[in-house]
Amino acid sequence: MSTETKCNPDLVRERAKCTFDVNELINLFYGSEKATKERRHFEDAVLAVKELKDAIPEEYLSHKERYENGVRKATILRDVYRDYKAKHNRDPPPNQITKAVIKDISPFLLHNGMFVPTIAGQGTPEQQAEWLPKAESMQIIGTYAQTELGHGSFIRGLETIATYDPKTEEFVLNNPTLTSFKWWPGGLGSTVNHCVVVAQLYINGKSHGIHPFIAQIRDLDTHKPLPGVKVGEIGPKMGFQTANNGFLGFDNFRIPRKNMLMKNAQVLKDGTFVKGINEKLTYGTMVMVRVGIVGDCSFYAALAATIAVRYSAVRHQSHIKASEPEAQILDYLTQQHKLFIAVASSHVYRNAYLWMEKMYTNVMKELSQDKQDNLPELHATACCLKAVCSRDAGSLVEECRLACGGHGYMASSNLPLTYGVTIAAVTYEGERTVLLLQTARYLMKAWMAALKGKVLSPSVSYLLNSLKESKKPWQNTPEGIVKGFQHVSFGKVKAAYETIQKYMKQGKDYEDAWNLASVQLVKASEAHSRAILCEVSWEAVCSSSASPNLSRVLQQLAQLYLTYWTLETSGDLLLYSNITKDDLIILRDKYEELLVAIRPNAVGLVDGFDLRDEILNSTLGSYDGRVYERLMEEALKSPLNQETVNSSFHKYLKPMMEKAKL
Ligand SMILES: CC/C=C\C/C=C\C/C=C\C/C=C\C/C=C\C/C=C/C(=O)SCCNC(=O)CCNC(=O)[C@H](O)C(C)(C)COP(=O)(O)OP(=O)(O)OC[C@H]1O[C@@H](n2cnc3c(N)ncnc32)[C@H](O)[C@@H]1OP(=O)(O)O
Ligand SMILES: Cc1cc2nc3c(=O)[nH]c(=O)nc-3n(C[C@H](O)[C@H](O)[C@H](O)COP(=O)(O)OP(=O)(O)OC[C@H]3O[C@@H](n4cnc5c(N)ncnc54)[C@H](O)[C@@H]3O)c2cc1C
């Protein structure tokens, strides 16, 4: 980090006000002092590589140049990872330094994030032994090719076909229609030579559902598409410009039998199909990534909050009191209302991610012992938390951007790109509504079990408690609010269930009744997610090992989250809990008190995310607060400022002006 001496004086004053030890917060957020040291050490190593620095901002490059620069940097970054591993005999610590290097999304994201994990998770030990060493060492580069032009959400409807030919012991891959073309996979456009292709398996004319296959699609030497492969890039998007998303179609393309990932289902040489213990295990990589996305949401909320809070401490505009100098915009309560929820939410998502990661690890361990009982809970929880955290994080990033006024609209603030990247997570890895409806299926089953007095899984056991406690008075405490959100979820689950029953009594079948109740079902899932986020995050701060000074501030943040959402969803609470109008007025006042209490620590709290200037990549958010200098320095990098008079003056403007004189 930069030294205090060069800092903007407002930021120096802000840091002096901080009531807790920022380093303690950093160590707590990232796990330990050792984890912080190792992460920073690795980040230093990456940033020391001169070739990773960009000569001009990415925005001035063409689509093609941006991609090529992305690949160039991704390969150098990969070397740094390899060298670290060789030297330390372990992978680098979790870090976000890719953001400092690639800025947008790495063309290798899908290789590391889904191709390798799918081989590890869906391959037999022999298949892992064949492909993992090559993939991990980047001798082959791959992606996860599932979505098609015609189908993304409903994957049982995928149209890519893998027909088994027992004579040659091969699968024949085909994309018979335009809508069957793979569309979206990252890296597919021009980067990868392999992919996991998810396709409908046919044996002797019989369909056996979707399965993952490994296909080599480009020649390893020439990188030309192999015969029978049509592949390309899908073009510019809202973000993800360097992710190199692509399309792919096969025409009678043959792969050996051993290329079907067979940890779950298998196809024997003679074409016998052997079912796996649970066909949904084929969807395993998606579950893992959904868990990871909750962690990503914490990062993006932290990044946007750091930029907007630091900028708001530096920016002065208007007066609170006419007799006083222009105020720091951070002193306006409305600004605090916009920003502090992003700071608080980042902590909430982080705690939810750690909680989900534990659940994921436990279920994976159980699955390795053929125990599947907790898989439905994992799937349902990963679906709804991914859906709710990504949508909220997108909104928070946008709010932070708007809170920076005009300068937030500048690409150099890094807030527009951050929004484009964050909001993509609402769609990828399962569209929000579709995932919330998956959770709703689980909630309906849980509700039916609750009605029968059965024991429920931990994440939904509150449904039983709420059934018993519905008469208890509201309590204006964090624990009381958590219970309140559980009551809302309980009320919405019950109402959605009763709506389905109502339609069925009117003669509708279950599917139509489900569709007619689906707005309520989605809202029930959202309420369930909010109840989990509130409970998990409050428990995490209460059980944290933080010092009293830090603990006080972390509790304020967690309470801010609880109170913010109580006020945002007061209608639901009035409908489904015993909260009163007077309680809401008390909580409104409490919320405003929390904003005021957090205000002196705002800069310390975002410093506690420990995001380097290179990761923030923002004229508005750097540690030293040289906002105006940086805005001007970045503007001067515009190619239009490299010449005093642009040729368009002579070509178009002057002739127009002269014509106008005639
Ligand atoms: C610990 C982790 C740590 C770190 C993680 C590391 C990295 C992550 C971080 C970074 C991310 C890397 C890359 C991301 C960036 C961009 C890449 C984007 C990639 C993609 O988008 S890939 C494509 C993703 N596509 C989807 O998500 C498709 C969504 N659709 C579906 O998943 C299914 O179609 C759907 C909606 C679940 C329905 O499936 P289906 O029709 O087959 O089922 P039903 O609705 O009939 O339900 C039947 C039954 O099955 C249960 N079930 C469904 N899915 C699962 C599952 N995954 N696991 C377990 N069970 C499942 C369902 O609940 C039903 O049960 P029931 O009958 O009710 O008992
Ligand atoms: C940036 C980005 C990167 C991606 N990377 C990859 C990748 O690497 N590999 C890959 O395979 N895919 C990738 N995808 C694809 C992504 O997984 C899909 O776009 C996503 O799963 C949504 O599917 P869809 O596009 O078919 O949306 P649709 O399902 O067509 O959604 C459109 C609308 O229909 C609604 N809808 C659909 N079904 C239902 C239903 N059953 N009930 C109620 N409403 C419904 C949705 O709620 C939504 O409002 C990526 C997408 C993006 C945006």
TrEMBL record:
Keyword tags: FAD, Fatty acid metabolism, Flavoprotein, Lipid metabolism, Oxidoreductase, Peroxisome
Stretches assigned to the Acyl-coenzyme A oxidase N-terminal domain: 21-141
Acyl-CoA oxidase C-terminal domain ranges (all copies): 478-658
Lineage top rank: taxon: Eukaryota
UniProt keyword Nucleotidyltransferase, yes or no: no
Database matches in Gene3D superfamilies: Acyl-CoA dehydrogenase/oxidase, N-terminal domain (1.10.540.10), Butyryl-CoA Dehydrogenase, subunit A, domain 2 (2.40.110.10), Butyryl-CoA Dehydrogenase, subunit A, domain 3 (1.20.140.10)
Signal peptide residue numbers: none
Pathway given in the UniProt record: Lipid metabolism; peroxisomal fatty acid beta-oxidation
InterPro entries: ACOX_C_alpha1 (IPR055060), Acyl-CoA_ox_N (IPR029320), Acyl-CoA_Oxase/DH_mid-dom_sf (IPR046373), Acyl-CoA_oxidase (IPR012258), Acyl-CoA_oxidase_C (IPR002655), AcylCo_DH-like_C (IPR036250), AcylCoA_DH/ox_N_sf (IPR037069), AcylCoA_DH/oxidase_NM_dom_sf (IPR009100)
SUPFAM superfamilies: Acyl-CoA dehydrogenase C-terminal domain-like, Acyl-CoA dehydrogenase NM domain-like
Domain Acyl-CoA oxidase C-alpha1 positions: 283-444
Presence of keyword Lipid metabolism: yes
Essential cofactor(s): FAD
Subcellular location field: Peroxisome
Family: Belongs to the acyl-CoA oxidase family.
UniProt protein name: Acyl-coenzyme A oxidase
